TrEMBL record:
GO terms for molecular function: diguanylate cyclase activity. The chain crosses the membrane at residues 190-210, 217-237, 249-269, 281-299, 305-328, 335-355, 367-386. The lineage of its organism: Bacteria, Pseudomonadati, Pseudomonadota, Gammaproteobacteria, Oceanospirillales. This is diguanylate cyclase. The keyword Signal applies. Residues 435-569 form the GGDEF domain.
């Protein structure tokens, strides 16, 4: 018989490797020897066993082979009932008391502790999150069990962790002082994270109420869902309000709501419905799946949570792909969004792998979603700032266009069209308030001669001089305008005809004293004529009042110019 030696050696190597791996995985669990009174065990070796049947009795569990592992494990969705085994020994000659901490007990259904000495069960405790009478071992979201060790006594601790969906936990051992210290500083980082998200939530809601832009609303809702889930999943709600167990199960729908609002934010910020139909269809497709998962979660939360990790991974791929497409199309917001969402995707992927039991128990992995949300929120704030700046720039441009459309380019006074619009409104207001008002028409005397003699550029200087004097002498309530080539108009509200005449006469006298420099050695004087008419408050028609003031102006010119006259019926 012929042997295939290479194949035989390969098989032998594989068998040997499997034996070695099995031997390491099922090696004896090292005993944690306690010497002295200070105890702070946060990194040590324990064993775990997954009860796939979820029905094993404790006596049967004791006989099982436990797999060696660190004291923090993440085993995914297929290990809802997991047993941990810890061996401890008091090497002191006096009794000591240690405290076993299960800091993530708040997200479990049940936590049970069994103490075994020399193969005999000496004490058992059952902590059911849905039964208040068993919650004396819960403190600020953590399960804390006291364990007494007699001198030179060795105990085996069996901890049963029954989760709703994803199985992950860590177990620590402390003395009384270290136990208090661990509990006091347990959620400081989460409180800081939630506080920063709350500030961003308030800011974006204020932006929405002031601007009515939907992207601010969707982004604020995304932060609300994310902030709520961070506070729920990382124990802050359990710490502050002592809520845990089945009552909080459906609250995890906030994890599904979070990407829903983020996708709506993307649809609005990139305007995909109007400009990018393919990207819009992609975002709508994953949005529909997430909404279906959210609705399904209202009836079967555990199944919905099992699907949520997969949907989150699909959502990240789609959203990153759409953002890259926007970057290729040179959308100005795309680089910011890609940076922020990329950070979120990286840390959330680490968290998804952790929750599925495919990544080791580390702070970054276990808190990946919260870290990702915070980083994304900070970077996407740049998008909000960019949008606000863009809108302000656009508004300033629009205001400038409105100003250009309503003002005379030479004098910077209102033009005829804007004056008519403003005056119509003010006359109706004067009628309602029964306040006197007057209109004055002013015209530069012999202006054609000024232009013909000294040139049009000098004529422009004269017009500017009149405009500057009007702005200097008139009051804030008066409306001024350049009504024609060398003609100006003033609407004086809450002003009697006598007060109007005095104001116009003062302007005329100031202009009569003014000089306009022609060249370095010569200056020119000029005069104006003015006509003033009172507004008929019973029938304040602008056109009629202007005609009356114009007639008074014509009469002033007929009388020899350089004078002010009031219209008389």
């Amino acid at each position: 018989m012929m042997f295939n030696r290479p194949l035989l050696f390969t098989r032998l190597f594989i068998m040997l490797w499997c034996v070695l791996v099995s031997a390491v995985a099922l090696a004896d669990i090292p005993t944690q020897v306690i010497q002295g009174s200070s105890v702070k065990l946060e990194q040590f070796q324990m064993g775990y066993f997954v009860d796939k049947t979820e029905k094993m009795l404790f006596s049967d569990v004791q006989k099982q082979e436990f797999q060696l592992s660190p004291n923090g494990v993440s085993l995914g969705t297929t290990s809802r009932m997991t047993w941990a085994k810890i061996e401890i020994e008091n090497a002191n000659t006096t009794p000591i008391k240690v405290y076993l901490h299960h800091p993530y007990a708040y997200h479990n259904h049940k936590v049970e502790l069994y103490e075994v000495v020399n193969g005999t069960l000496t004490r058992e405790r059952v902590l059911d999150m849905d039964r208040k009478e068993t919650q004396q071992w819960m403190y600020r979201g953590s399960a804390v069990f006291d364990i007494t060790l007699e001198p030179n006594q060795r105990k085996i601790l069996f901890v049963k962790s029954q989760s709703f969906s994803h199985q992950w936990f860590t177990l620590n051992l402390y003395d009384e002082d270290q136990s208090k210290r661990a509990l006091l500083g347990l959620y400081t980082d989460i409180a800081l994270l939630a506080g920063m998200l709350l500030a961003l939530i308030i800011y974006n809601f204020l932006l929405f109420f002031s601007s009515r832009l939907r992207e601010h609303f969707f982004y604020a809702c995304y932060l609300v869902a994310g902030g709520f889930w961070v506070a729920l999943s990382y124990g802050l709600l359990a710490d502050l309000f002592n809520v845990y167990g089945s009552i909080t199960l459906k609250w995890h729908l906030s994890l599904v709501a979070m990407p829903i609002f983020l996708l709506l934010f993307m649809i609005n910020i990139f305007e995909t419905k109007k400009k990018y139909p393919i990207e819009h269809w992609a975002l709508l497709s994953i949005l529909t799946l997430l909404i279906c998962d959210f609705v399904y979660g209202l009836f079967d939360m555990i199944t919905a949570l099992n699907y949520s990790s997969t949907l989150a991974a699909i959502m990240m791929v789609v959203s990153i792909s759409v953002t890259i497409s926007m970057l290729i199309r040179k959308h100005p917001i795309a680089p910011f969004f890609l940076l922020g969402h990329g950070l979120f995707a990286i840390f959330s992927t680490m968290a998804v792998l952790f929750y599925k039991g495919k990544a080791e128990f580390t702070y970054i992995n276990s808190h990946g979603v919260g870290i990702g949300i915070m980083l994304e929120a900070l970077v996407l704030s740049l998008i909000i700032a960019y949008r606000i700046r863009s809108l302000e720039t656009m508004k300033a441009a629009q205001d400038e266009l409105k100003l250009l459309a309503s003002t005379d380019s030479l004098t910077q006074l209102f033009n005829r069209r804007h004056f008519n619009t403003e005056a119509e409104y003010l006359l109706q207001q004067a009628k309602q308030l029964q306040q006197p008002a007057a209109i004055a028409m002013l015209d530069i005397d012999h202006f054609k001669k000024v232009n013909d003699t000294h040139g049009h550029s000098f004529g422009d200087k004269v017009i500017i001089q009149v405009a500057n004097t009007l702005m200097a002498e008139c009051r804030g309530q008066d409306v001024l305008a350049r009504y024609g080539g060398e003609e100006f108009i003033i609407l004086m509200t809450n002003t009697s005809i006598g007060e109007a005449f005095n104001l116009v006469e003062q302007i005329r006298q100031e202009l009569a004293k003014a000089t306009v420099i022609l060249n370095n050695t010569q200056s020119v004087n000029f005069t104006i004529s003015a006509g003033i008419a009172a507004i008929d408050l019973e029938n304040p028609i602008l056109k009629n009042s202007i005609n009356q003031a114009d007639k008074a102006l014509y009469q002033a010119k007929e009388n020899g110019r350089n004078q002010s006259l009031v219209y008389k019926v």
